[in-house]
Amino acid sequence: xxxxxxxxxxLVLINLAAILEKADETLLPAVYKEVGQxxxxxxxxxxxxxxxxxxxxxxxxxLAGILAMRFYRPSVIGIGTLFWGLSxxxxxxxxxxxQCAFARAVNGIGLAIVIPALQSYVADSHMEGxxxxxxxxxxxVGAVGGIxxxxxxxxxxxxxxxxVPGWRIAFLLMAVTSSVIGWLVxxxxxxxxxxxxxxxxxxxxxxxxxxxxxxxxxxxxALEHLVKPGSQEPxxxxxxxxxxxxxxxxxxxxxxxxxxxxxxxxSFQIVVLQGIVGSLPWTAMVFFxxxxxxxxxxxxxxxxxxxxxxxxxxxxxxFGGWIGDWAERRFPGKGRIMCxxxxxxxxxPFSCFLLLVLPQDPExxxxxxxxxxxxxxxxxxxxxxxxxxxxxDIVPEKNRTMIYAFDRALEGSFAAxxxxxxxLLAENVYGYRPHQVISDAGSPIxxxxxxxxxCTVMAIPFGLCCxxxxxxxxxxxxxxxxxRSHAQFPKFDSSVDDLTALKKNKLPIIQTVEAGSERREEEEEEExxxxxxxxxxxx
Length: 539
Hints:
Blueprint: H1 2-30, H2 32-39, H3 43-60, H4 62-70, H5 73-92, H6 97-124, H7 131-157, E1 160-161, E2 164-165, H8 166-188, H9 196-211, H10 217-226, H11 234-241, H12 244-263, H13 266-284, H14 288-295, H15 298-330, H16 335-357, H17 365-379, H18 382-394, H19 400-415, H20 418-428, H21 444-468, H22 472-488, H23 499-503, H24 509-538
Helix pairs in contact: 1-7, 1-8, 3-6, 3-19, 3-20, 4-6, 4-12, 4-19, 5-6, 5-8, 6-19, 7-8, 7-15, 7-18, 13-19, 13-20, 13-21, 13-22, 14-15, 14-21, 15-16, 15-17, 15-18, 16-17, 16-18, 16-21, 20-21
């Protein structure tokens, strides 16, 4: 009962961290207009802020994989949350555009640490057939944070409190909340991965039932001493006794082995390829709030429309996860891919209709709300119905954080370019005039220019993303079966006395017990033969 309560608390805190992560990401785009006026920044410069954060986040993402392999995951998530909280406070206190850009870069490091660790935590907490729905719930609660962060910042941006601009207060509130949740995650959350003592006990009992194996008490006690609960394992003490250079070298070697294993998987290469183009539209959407304000919807109107869109994406992600699980059961190896293609293709007509066809007039609020709602419901499936569950299926459990980390690194590096591209297209191709923006009444010419830039960076990548998924039909099922086979029959070293192999997880404890038992049985057989031979000679 106590363990169940602890896991419940853990899941609540993990979801709170996901909520704050999305809220933090949406803060700056929600106040682009005010930040631009405060620092006299153009759309391309505002896009550069998102580019810097996304690029640093992408480059730093592998750090999450390395940390999760060497340290307790809740601590990794908690420290990353504290990290982005402090950097968010730095944005609130920025007095120049350069200071703001530096703070956003530091913010990217915190997000880079947290997101892959959260994804692998969810993957390890659920069985294969329910991971899509689990990722859907994670996306749903994250979207709640996105809605809250966007609406809070957008509404507060139009006011000042004690002479302090509202957008700065919004960033300070986010910083304080993130820091508190980060500390709670670090302190209270349990990792679903079993500690070595529990892993040994579970493995031993399972082996007992399935293989009719019985370890002698001496061997069990010896191994129990090796991993005695409540005390440090001798192997860890040995590691602590080594110098720091060897520890760092070991971390690098372990990480390099995991990286090579991940990059060899064909399905990973394909999902990353589609993600590189598929992430561009979502990064470009950071301009939606600014675009709606330029049309003339105002702060509250733009905030409510973005809330509707984000809510549609949240429900769509949950539905996409569920339908992906269902489709995969109905069409093994193909169901998830078909759902992802349907979702990505739907982004083309919705983008064109929203950005090019709808009259850009605040009188059409209902039509914009309906379009944004249905667009959110349909274009948001890919991550939950396909990408995240596929990643969990095609690599062993120990490499999951690493595969999510490198996915973010590779996709994010290219997706980061979307925001400045939108700004450059709007200014240099479609006639956006940065100094002609009217604060409250809207600017129809600038809104039209920005919408054309957005459509270019959304519709084309959605189509390319749909096409890239096609290659998974040839690789996904094969890679999934190979990962499952590796999990059931790992290639471990067979040496019983090789503590180095045990230290590097090349030799599981249960195999050590089994090998020792087999050797002991052979010795007993030899002893019986000697006794028999001796008895024959005696008589």
